[in-house]
Amino acid sequence: MSRPSSLSKPxxxxxxxxxxxxEDDWTSPxxxxxxxxxxxxxxxxxxxREAELQQAGLPDTADESAGVAERMPPIASHGTVLTFEPxxxxxxxxxxxxxxxxxxxxxIRVAKEADDVRFxxxxxxxxxxxxAPTPAPQPVKEVLPPPAxxxxxxxxxxxxxxxxxxxxxxxxxxxxxxxxxxxxGTLISLSLGTLGFTLLAWIYLHDSPxxxxxxxxxxxxxxxTPVIQAPLKLRAFLDSxxxxxxxxxxxxxxxxxxxxxxxxxxxxxxxxxxxxRDLLEDYDWHPHHAAWYREDASTxxxxxxxxCLLQAQAAYLARxxxxxxxxxxxxxxxxxxxxxxxxxxxxxxxxxxxxxxxxAAQTLAELLKATRLDGATLGRFQKEFTQxxxxxxxxxxxxxxxxxxxxxxxxGTASGELLDTMPGGRLHQRPGRLFFKMNETLGxxxxxxxxxxxxxxxxxxxxxxxxxxxxxxxxLTKPRFYHPNSNGETYFSNHIxxxxxxxxxxxxxxxxxxxxxxxxxxxxxxxERQTLPGTLTDLTPTYLLSLPxxxxxxESLQYEAASGRLYSVGVNLIAEGGRVTSLPMxxxxxxxxxxxxxxxxxxxx
Length: 605
Description:
Blueprint: E1 11-14, E2 17-20, H1 44-56, H2 64-71, E3 75-77, E4 80-82, E5 84-85, H3 97-118, H4 148-163, H5 169-205, H6 230-240, H7 259-268, H8 270-281, H9 303-319, H10 323-341, H11 348-369, H12 375-386, H13 392-411, H14 438-457, H15 470-475, H16 486-496, H17 502-529, E6 558-560, E7 565-567, E8 592-594
Antiparallel strand pairs: 1-2, 1-5, 3-4, 6-7, 7-8
Helix pairs in contact: 6-8, 7-9, 9-10, 9-11, 10-11, 10-12, 11-17, 12-17, 13-14, 14-16, 14-17
């Protein structure tokens, strides 16, 4: 930027040289004779103007820099005068290229309008201006400065713009309020986002504290017997069972087979019968011993063939006329089912026990339908079969034991149980996974087994609807992928599914057991009195100490002497006259046994 002309210093000229001089009465001590150029003579006009100014006492204001130069006294030495000239003003910067282009366009437009007016005919009016679209300005090619200069210039302009004070107080207040609002809004948004993320992480990662499960403890003492043989004998029996070769016979009851097939099946399984006899002779299986936890024999694939083997033995002996050995084979099957009910180390043993109990009841019902044994012999077998009755108390404690089994699988040694009772010797805790909460999943098992335990104590006829049953409510617990414990719910659903039908299967086992007990009493009554009783109450107390209660109705079983049927109302709680099937008591809606004899009804004339 150039300095104002009013502050410009005088300049001395000597030939081709010039320099600034101070504004005081300084005189050079040197003389420059013969070297100073004399000033040019003043014209008459200059002398006249100088005289007028001197008379008025005013300086010459034509040029400020010239006035400053005139106020400087001339330097004279030996007749030579040193004159001063004002500093030349700096040349203005050239206008921008865009302004030059606009100025040239404006001059061309004015010249064109002047030519139109000059050459227009006398009677022709000038055309009215038409609003034409403004042409887009042509891009002007400018020479880009070096890269450092525009950066410095832009930064300086931004700095000037940011630091330029706002003259309007209202505008300044609005800007300040806007900045404050933006700051508070950003802070609130960040706070809410952080709070939401923290809450979401807490929901998905936090596990609820472990609930108390003292009510799910088994009431059994620790078996400290050094060594037991029952698990090994059971394994030996299952390994020695050979399935029937004819696959089509597996879907038929054993008493429907032909005699050669029965004989062949019995003969090839001679080793299995010896191992079974050795197993049942061991009176005390020590069902709560730690040896049962080492291996889960309930998953052995030979269990269905083992049940079929015992039925085939009874059918073959009965066909040969050996009724007492046939009844012994069926009672052995019921005894094995009772012993399996006491083994709680693995949940599968209860399932196998219910299957063996059903097979034994069906076998005895088929044998009693055509038996010719006397009442005393039937009474002895009836007493042995009564001791194999499914017990509610055992199943209730089994539910608690199955909960402890799931707890051990989840927590390992952290469950607080004995190390030698860990399933399969597994001592490690289940590894953690995303969307799997250990304590919450364990709480699902605790709630489910409590509901199953309470349902076992409640008779089936007290359930007003299927939807109101606890097992139905447990089935509604389905895993959801977005749930924080979705993997835990999936694990729970897969493990609790086999237990959901335990109460109903247990009730069906009790109903079948009651039907076979009544059938024993009816056949004894028939053997001794050569007739059937009119009602079941005629059987007490000689043949039955108390009438079996139908678990599905809460009343005595349905007895029809005319048709020779004895049945339970079944799971649908409706008495429909019984449903006779090829396999006794196969229909769960109305388990029915055939007495094998009916009372003749007189024909009406």
